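SEVERITY: medium
COMPONENT: batch folding queue
REPORTER: lab tech (J.R.)

DESCRIPTION
The queue accepted two submissions in a row. Attaching both inputs and their returned structure tokens so the on-call engineer can compare them side by side.

ATTACHMENT 1
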Amino acid sequence: MKPDEFRKHAHELVEWMASYMENVENYPVKSPVKPGEIFSEIPDNPPQKAEPFESFMKDLDKIIMPGITHWQSPNFYAYFPANTSPPSVLAEMIISTLGAQCMIWETSPAATELEEKVMNWLKKMIGLPDYFEGVIQDTASTSTLAAIITAREKKSGFSFNEQGAGGCGTIRIYCSEQTHSSVEKAVKISGIGRKNLVKIPVLDDFSMDTHKLREAIEKDKALGYIPACVIATLGTTGTTAVDPLRKTGEICSEYGIHLHVDAAMGGTALILPEFNWMLDGCEYIDSLVFNPHKWMFTNFDCSAYFVKDASSLIRTFEILPEYLKTRTRGKVNDYRDWGVPLGRRFRALKLWSVIRSYGVEGLQEKVREHVRIASELEKMILHESDFELPAPRTMNVVCFRYRPSGYDAEQLNKLNEILNHRLNDTGRIYLTHTSLNGRYTLRMVIAQTNVTMEHVRKAWSLILENARSVSI
């Protein structure tokens, strides 16, 4: 593609992008295609000769778009947000154009130094102490893996990396029953093993029971196990429950255990002074992750990982082949030593663009409005006698279920599952569920960049209409 052709198609593509942003809420939120439908539309063999870009765009609209679930729709209330925004998209275009591989300072000095500065901004925005240092990872799953491996190395005297598991003893990791599945995946990948992940029961508000945590640690120590890491969550996936950080931190400090905090979505709420309470006990934190690509309007992928002791993280992951030796080593941050991958994208640029475009006050205004809307939805649900809230609302996620009279527990679960599918099949909204004490529970996540109270009112009307007509 020649420069003039690129310029022409780029202008056309920007028009396509702007049109999509303007009209995204008119698409079915959840893709209605059936398994294999998109696959069958794509030729079995690649083209032998070059095809015009117009052909690509035609098939994008014809084949691909029907199979897209529209995460940027203000009617998307499922899973968790994966938000974008115009400033982020524009910066992502620059990132793609530069095509920089930002593994070490020398491969792109600006990328390294901007990342360090932007992470310092974020640290101040969410209220972490100055001694924390940050690095951008791809996802919270990777950040949690890095935390668990670092904790493993600290407990083994950094011998696990050198000698393997033999002779290091049995390491144990602790989290609540509500903790994200990435923790379970991380203990598998790290070589610690799933059977050495201890899931702690939760209280009525679905936060971790620290008395049970202490009991589990004491029991494991008596059996000769090595408690290495506790994962506390600020905003669990299912209900956005907040684990008691100070009590958890005091236990970790007493037993010399690494405290990792998973605030993947909930961490964005820390930019609001009214949520500073979640960080009470932050002096005990060894590492913390939150995702600007969830609720801070920075498109995927962009995960902010903070550590109290960067030297332990670097010692865990650094490796220095000849081709990576530079004259600047030791004078600058080489972020390829701060995590699993060697290759790194210039993610800091889009985060910089978003923070500058909205300003801290603009970001606070949007996040605060989402919390307010969730609070209003909570009131609307409480107003209906045949609905219930199985979990308290802490920030922007509302858990609810339909509970008409005359049904037993199993029937109510089935009724709510049917309701969930029926709502999603309308294409007008998209919800997902969780299970709370064996109860099938619907979730509404109020966090999409452009969601308004009017969108939520329409969604609630649709929910009521379908609930009262569903039966088993």
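ATTACHMENT 2
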Amino acid sequence: MVLWIVVGVVVLLALFVWATYNKLVKTNVRVEEAWSDITVQMKRRFDLIPNLVSSVKGYAKHEAKTLENVVKERSGAIGGSVKETAETENMLSGALKSLFAVAESYPDLKANQNFLQLQEELVDTEDKIQASRRFYNGAVRTLNTMVQMFPTNIFAKSLGFTKKEFFEVDNQAEVEKAVDVNFDK
């Protein structure tokens, strides 16, 4: 009788560990998928940027510094950890704001069909990046909760699961600040 109780407890414990492990794996894969979604959208944005810069170059030759900043930030934005990617994304977003502020000063450029299409595609891509970030952060929240909550936390570390970083903006006010462009100088 005691033997059956011990066997029953061991079987229940084994089933719990099996179910916990599978749930952690599923959630971890969801985090990896979400990160992949972010990188796919960022790659799409990086592919659009040279075309956008080329469109602006013809109209805004004396804005070379703004264009150089966009290209520089683009080149440093792929790869790295979540935190590094978030930092470079913030700088790239600021550079793109400057580019669009420059474009506002050129009515012919704003009317250029190629530029308008590229701008529309970039805005669409930015929306997709934001959605991907939200999906990633939701998946990270779920995984981090599982890794920290009892009784899952007992097995999570021993099974190799750890907390992941959220995709965060270091200085939200700076990212949301409008770009100041002054052509009177």
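NOTES FROM REPORTER
The two ends are 91 Å apart (CA to CA).
No errors were logged for either attachment.
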